[in-house]
Amino acid sequence: MFTNKESFKSAFLERLENMYGKNINETTTIEQYMALGSLVKEQINKNWILTKKIYRERGEKQVYYLSMEFLLGKMLGMNLINLGIYEVIEEGLKDLRISLSDLEQQEPDPGLGNGGLGRLAACLLDSMASLHLPGHGCGIRYKYGLFEQKIMDGYQVELPDYWLREGNVWEVRRSDKAVEVRFEGNIWVEKVGERLVFHHENFESVLAVPYDIPIPGYKNKTVNTLRLWSAESAIKDFDFQCLNNRDYQKIVEYKRSTEAISEFLYPDDSKEEGRILRLKQQYFLVSAGLQSIIRSYKKRHQNIKDFPNKVAIHINDTHPVLAIPELMRILMDEEGLEWDEAWSITTRTISYTNHTTLQEALERWPIDMMKRLLPRIYMIIEEINERFCRELWNKYPGEWGLIHEMAIIADGQVKMAHLAIVGSYQVNGVSKIHTEILKKQVMKNFYNYFPYKFHNKTNGITHRRWLLKANPLLAKLISDAIGTNWIEHPTDLNYLLNYAKDPSFQERISRVKRQNKISLSNYIKEKYHIAVDPDSIFDVQVKRLHAYKRQLLNVFHIMDLYNRLKENPNLDIVPRTFIFGAKAAPAYFLAKRIIKLINTVASLVNNDSTIQGKIRVIFVENYGVSLAEKIIPAADIGQQISTASKEASGTGNMKFMMNGALTLGTLDGANIEIKDEVGEDNIFIFGLTPQEVLDYYQYGGYRARDLYQSDPRLRKILDQLIDGFFLKEVVDFKFIYYSLLQENDEFFVLKDFASYADAQKRIDQFYKDQESWIEKSIINIAHSGIFSSDRTILEYASGTWEVRPIFIS
Ligand SMILES: *Cc1c(COP(=O)(O)O)cnc(C)c1O
């Protein structure tokens, strides 16, 4: 370990020489990054090997977290912090006239996720390692991550995100652990004695090659593994030489189609696109993952019947739900167990997190597609369905309607959420309200049937990345005040309450916030050539673009504010900088129009000198983890304004409060729990309640047109969308206009407008009293510890997985 900077410096210089055959002053920044990465990786390797050895020897229960997404963020800085050598390295590099933060910038963000769901998976990995828990990730190594977003002429343009261009210093290819995954073909059944044996023929074989990434814990010796699978053809290159031309073509086509499986992450977190390939990806992940889990189990244990006591498999949403039939397949077809035994093992091994109640995001697959692509798996799902429906019939004889509604296969489709609930021992929602809505509405039939399965695990975020790393100035200030215990026990942040009214602490907190705002202003200035005032309120909404998240409500308020400023340029408001960041799914037309609208309003507002710079609107391109780390520490307000009942939890909300921003939000997802923690005076709540929204959906009674008629502010804004107000624009915003008036405003934007505008006015007034604002800010930070993913993970570990820490020494 680099205990002093001198030993680091000489190792670093030598590494540069060895890797590139150059002296330090001839190397490029990227080469310096790669050399540093490889040195750090080497440090991690020792404990990685040790951890694996101890896990193997002890034979205690392991957790595998299966997820189609891991939105990791850059790893260099985080690894240095976890190893406890960030400062030493920074100092050593400084001697060599190299800035560590410049090197950190060289690392591409692994774009292996869309948004909250993938980021949660990354936070949970960090917490498992930091809490000494033997928990591993299992995912796909997409060659292209989520697209890179550019804004051109106000429109989103998508460029490929080839994040692996320079290679990935953190991964190790493990060809020796490759497994085969089979698609298509046909099944024939043979009777051998008393048993039915299933043979799979004429299948397409795909080679799954794992790439392992070490996940070190915070200042401990635990190094867990994130295993990402890459799809390759099962053909060796020498096979090519002895082929005639026709076969050659066929093989090239086969190679292309197998490699396509791990080519792209689907850039849509609500609807499924490119459906066949997406289904292939799901089975690819699950089959490769389970084969390797079982292989490693068999190295440690004799008896497959003990599997649920030694392995917990968690599925992040329904995307990996084929783990259920795949585990059944392996247990029966390969391990020779009977159905009942296999089913008992499976349903004691798998647990499931539900992430959404949006109907369009509940996965369903056409029977035909699944049957053709995964013939054996489909047979097993059919059998699970038949047995489940029989059970239902016994409990609810004659209730055809109910049984049809709960069936796993119905109306020509396989309902993945139903399969997940039936085949797992626990189902959890991700915030209290979300879990209640699952139990009382969306999954109420299942809750009535399996009440014991449903639990809540409110999401969390790792405070190590989102405070310690993202906001070093604040982290230092906190440690100066209350010591460093909060890093290992985040609820210790509570001690900050003693300082909430302390004028000198308030003064320092506000200096840190101002410093972070200046840094962000500099970034904006450099990148977009727009000057923003660090003394204005930084009012931020950064998250995926979706109608239910209601970026539209935010823009409408800006349009109204602008309209009022035009009427009265002397309007007395605190200057405001509205900051947006959001990617829209490429095929999501409404979302893309909303991006265009935000940018259109931005250029109107930013270029109108008559409003004296009182408002500025910034849309930052390509929102992702690294930008979040830059933006959130600079926020005064975090907007969490989804239609109540629609946001399962949100985790952006937690990052903002932890960095001292106040929440402007609806009673939705974890906002409710944030409000309960900080108290009503320290959060800005507005809008319909979840129950009110659900009642409108159920009983009707909302007419958007009435609001257009009765609220002159709304009429003006809506008219401006279509009357040529944005004169230079060739496009108008008819599509948005119609979604609100013709389609009756599904997400209650107009309905919540008045209440939202009021809340915004309160913010303006409260901000003028800086002392009390800073006090609120400190209260938010002080209560954020409970939203650390350490708390979430401890709940999963004891309440779901029944897994215990293993101390590596
Ligand atoms: C936290 C995070 C999200 C989730 O944000 P929400 O506001 O909860 O939707 C999405 N993207 C990135 C990059 C994040 O860091």
Ligands (ions, cofactors included)? pyridoxal-5'-phosphate
- The CATH class of the largest domain is Alpha Beta
Number of strands: 23
Overall radius of gyration = 27 Å
Q: What does the average pLDDT come to? A: 95
CATH architecture of the largest domain: 3-Layer(aba) Sandwich
Shape: globular
Quaternary status: single chain
Please tally the helical runs, counting DSSP H or I stretches of 4 or more residues. Answer: 32
Calculate the terminal CA-CA distance, rounded to whole Å: 15 Å
Strand percentage: 5-15%
Please indicate the count of domains.
3
Instruction: Output the CATH topology of the largest domain.
Output: Rossmann fold
Task: Explain what the structure shows.
This protein is α/β, with parallel strands linked by helices and 809 residues long. It is 49% helix and 15% strand. It has 32 helices and 23 strands. Strands 1, 2, 5, 6, 9, 10, 11, 12, 16 and 17 form a ten-stranded mixed sheet that branches. A six-stranded parallel sheet has the order 20-19-18-21-22-23, sandwiched between helices. A three-stranded antiparallel sheet has the order 13-15-14. Strand 9 (204-216) and strand 10 form a beta hairpin. The protein is globular. Residues 115-116, 119, 543-544, 624-625, 628, 650-652, 655 line the site of pyridoxal-5'-phosphate (PLP). Pyridoxal-5'-phosphate binds at residues 115-116, 119, 543-544, 624-625, 628, 650-652, 655.
